[in-house]
Amino acid sequence: MAEGTVSMAEVETSFQKFAVHGDTKATGKEMNGKNFAKICKDCHIIDGKNVTTTDVDIVFSKVKAKSARVITFEQFNQALIELAPKRFKGKGKEEAVQQLYGLIIGKDPANAGVTKVAKAAAVERLTDSTKYTGSHKERFDDSGKGKGKGGREDIPDTSGYVTAYKGTKDKTLAF
User: Fold this and answer.
1) Chunked mean pLDDT (size 10), the chain, 175 residues
2) What is the pTM of this model?
3) How far, in Å, CA of 101 to CA of 24, rounded?
4) Which of 125, 103, 113, 88 lies closest to 14 in space, CA to CA?
5) How far apart are CA 4 and CA 92, in angstroms?
6) Residue 113 — left, alpha, or beta (φ > 0 → left; ψ -120 to 50 → alpha)?
7) Cα(64)–Cα(72) distance, rounded to whole angstroms?
8) How far apart are CA 40 and CA 135, in angstroms?
9) Which terminus in the chain has less CB density within 10 A, N or C?
């Protein structure tokens, strides 16, 4: 590979990875606006000074077909060519585009900042069923597993006997 040029196959590989990110039905041939913004953010095309999220959204709208909600790899390239001179001011158009490709190749969608399960001491204490007392304790069996509906509701005894009666129906009455 010649110095300063980037393999389009590598750019397309990154395009496909971002195109399917978060979308189970995506084929990798087209990218939606959200994923276009994500590739720009994760690959540091958006720098907050020269290129902002607004610029990225405008360029996306410009290159996509009128009624379409996605862009193809060719339209993606067109968008990058529009963004390159903004991102790398003072560089020639071709050089700026090559540098932009350099930012994209080999990148995968980052999952930074994705919600993680909270493991705080307070949460741990509140979800420990062995520490429950009173009526809440009855919602769990001896192993700490919840009883479900049976632990939450008073299920009436429909045997036909009065509440205060001490015997059960299988005992005979002795007078």
Assistant:
1) 64 90 84 91 88 93 93 93 90 89 84 60 72 75 74 68 61 55
2) 0.59
3) 26
4) 103
5) 13
6) left
7) 8
8) 54
9) C
